[in-house]
Amino acid sequence: MKILAPGITFVAIFLLAQTAAFAIDYIGPGDRISESLGRRDQTLDDDCYFDEFYLNAEIGQLIQVTQISDEIDSYLMIVSPSGDQWENDDYSESYDARVSVLISEPGEYSVICSSYSPESGDYEVEVEEITKSNFYGIFVGIEYYGREWEDAPLCDQDAEELRDSFIRTGLMEEQNAILLTNRDAEYGDVEDAFDEISRRIGPDDTFVFFFSGHGDQIEATGDEWADKRDNLDEVICLKDKDLDDNSFAMLMDEINAKLSLVVIDSCNSGGIARDIMDSPGRVVFASSEEDVLSDFATDLNAGGYLSVFFRDAIEGDADLDGDGIIMMGELTRYLLLRYSEDIPSPESAIYGYQELVHDRGTVSQDTIFFWNQPKTSHRRH
Predict the structure, then answer these.
(1) How far apart are the C-alpha atoms of 231 and 356, rounded to whole Å?
(2) Beta 49-55 vs 42-43: how paired, if at all?
(3) For residue 267, is pLDDT > 80?
């Protein structure tokens, strides 16, 4: 990031740096224009050339601006009418730059295309409006088992409350949310739910699978499915029988979505990730490693800790910078923070205590999960 003098905003430096009057072009969603940085351009206080554009957008739009170049190390900034500033360098481990902004106030937003250090070269700037995808979800929670398992207190409540959070925040239509609890959470019910969602979901949509209840490890059977490392399979314990990780992977293969998020709050749940991450667009959060148990969160009036933390994230708490946009990297950081701060850890615990297991696979940390109205002023780097 560019380091500015304390108390001096980019807007002030920009005004001080101008040496002549320059015509400012408007850009908006759908535009992709070619420009160059060189000696005819204005400079910042660090002698970097820059071009300025005005963003043509409306309140409520989520705008994504990308500066693309093979010749310079792009550095992109957007400044709101009130002076809030977003900036980015090296988006997704490249020399391109990308900034996403939720338009929340009237007036002209300035787009500043520059470079990380003084250099000249060609670049392109692309503007896109990000539209909300349709969310579909299967929410499974079991408290009352009635077989060899003891009851799992409040795990049914975890599923119901998370389903309600998705609906209440406007992320998911009620008809797109399937809730399966207790006697309605048998193996066949889960298969039917996947079959229904697979017929309705589209390639630009988002899928969420959530489970809260018991989990276990069992001896793997059959050469085709055996885990070659430990000869064990991890299972989700449903009302009538277990759903092993390999069978769960087959159910996931029925879902053709742009993004699929799997959240499993049960013992030994970390082993599930290994079997479903061979397809792009999948993200997994599990409450513990594959050989570690997960505690009940009775102190939080919930079945599991991950259930509470993920529900709070959906309610908006994962918006760590207050800009109204929750990126996948931001969601991961939030859940890790909650694990470190809010799960009671015995002082004697050296190993074998639950830690968040997470895997984003091919999904970039900059991938937008969802957005709502921003809570506070902010600065994104």
Answers:
(1) 23
(2) antiparallel
(3) yes
> 58: burial class by Cβ within 10 Å (0-12, 13-18, 19+)?
exposed
- Using DSSP's 3-state secondary structure scheme, residue 162 falls into helix
Structure tokens at 185: 């959470």
Contact predicate 234/268, CB 8 Å: yes
Each residue's pLDDT tens digit, 135-190:
999 999 999 998 888 999 999 999 999 999 999 999 999 999 999 999 999 999 99
* Separation CA 284–CA 293 (nearest Å): 17
What's the pLDDT score for residue 19?
38
Report the predicted TM-score, pTM, of the whole model to 2 decimal places. Answer: 0.83
The H-or-E segment that residue 62 falls in is strand 62-68
Q: Which of 301, 266, 314 is nearest to 286 (CA)?
A: 266
Asked if 91 and 145 count as a contact pair (C-beta separation under 8 A), the reply is no
- Say which residues have a Cβ less than 8 Å from residue 218's Cβ, sequence separation at least 6: 232, 233, 235, 242, 244
Please report the domains of the chain, with CATH numbers, ordered by start residue.
10-131 (2.60.120.380), 135-371 (3.40.50.1460)
3-state secondary structure 168-231: HCCCCCHHHEEEEEHHHCCHHHHHHHHHHHHHHCCCCCEEEEEEECCEEEEECCCCCCCCCCCC
DSSP, collapsed to helix, strand or coil, labels residue 116 as: coil
How many beta carbons lie within 10 A of that of residue 82, not counting itself? 10
What's the whole-number mean pLDDT along residues 332-359? 81
b/e for 208-218, b at 16 or more Cβ within 10 A?
bbbbbbbbbbe
